[in-house]
Amino acid sequence: MARYTLIVGTRSWSSWSLRPFVALMAVGEPFETVDIRLRQTDSPTTREQILKHSPAGKVPVLKIEEQGTTQTVWDSLAICETLAERHPQAGLWPVEPAARAMARSYACEMHSGFPDVRDQLTMEFARKKELPELREDTKTQIARILSAWEWALAAYKGPFLFGKLSVADCMYAPVVSRFLTYGVDVPAPVRSYMDRMMALPAMQEWRKAAQAEIDAAIV
Ligand SMILES: N[C@@H](CCC(=O)N[C@@H](CS)C(=O)NCC(=O)O)C(=O)O
Predict the structure, then answer these.
(1) Structural domains for the chain
(2) Which atom of ligand 1 is nearest to the CA of 56?
(3) Which tens digits make up the pLDDT trace of 118-134?
(4) For the whole model, what pTM was predicted?
């Protein structure tokens, strides 16, 4: 059996790290987590620490140890894809091809988009914050996310975007947290979806770790 190690950044802030964490928890295989504190400028800096695990110098990173070899996978979407491929029984992509193509579109739209949402609503996983004065682009991006969620929830009948939890939900998990942190106004079906996401064991565990960072005053 493979041994998995997921290298993640500061839980409160590392939205990219949260995505494969949700996917790995959904797979159900045991794994270890290595936490690297972001924004460390004293030696060893964050970058120096990450470079010990991945040449890309970014978290998340997944290490897969099996049959005497270690494979390194970086980038949140690449990790989710790898897990989906290695564990088809986890159903991380919908079985039906049209639904799978749509779920992939959702995941990739999130991965490469919404820069203003990321910039103005930074992830603070276990905190509540005041909604800042939103730029027009941010409002447009929030509206797009909400309409995409509403459409998928209606089309695939929940409980998650494409029925069963998929990579699309993993990719949007940080946005769920951001909308809750800043109290973004959302329609009722979306709010229920967000509550279901937050109730996932992965999100609960991440919240505990993020709260521990606040309690230790490291964020
Ligand atoms: N596209 C990458 C982005 C990863 C990324 O930007 N990670 C940030 C933390 S959330 C990072 O490692 N920053 C390095 C640093 O702060 O030095 C992914 O999806 O994994």
Answers:
(1) 3-89 (3.40.30.10), 93-202 (1.20.1050.10)
(2) 12
(3) 999 999 999 999 999 99
(4) 0.98
